[in-house]
User: Fold this.
Amino acid sequence: MSDAAKTLFNRIDSAIHRSPHLIGHTLQIEMRAGRVVLRGVVPSYYQKQMAQEVVRMVDGVERVDNQLEVDWNTRQPVLEDAPVLEDAPVLEDAYV
Assistant:
């Protein structure tokens, strides 16, 4: 895999892991000349579409072949599965 392909793969992987719609789901990513193939299982068609859109928005991705399967019985991730953002800003006062 070329350095450019590795960089693109890392950007795609990072975008998937940052997406709040895909927390706790493991997706397989395969790349071929700007085309990205997504495989794995998600619990809803919404999450399948969101995965495609997250990947499609990454600069350098020319086409997404979304082969994700929807299984309604797949465990929905819970909040404890969410990544902890160490330096995330904290809202001190919620009054408007």
Remarks:
- The mean pLDDT is 83.
- The radius of gyration is 15 Å.
- The CA atoms of residues 43 and 76 lie 7 Å apart.
- The helical segments are 3-18, 45-56.
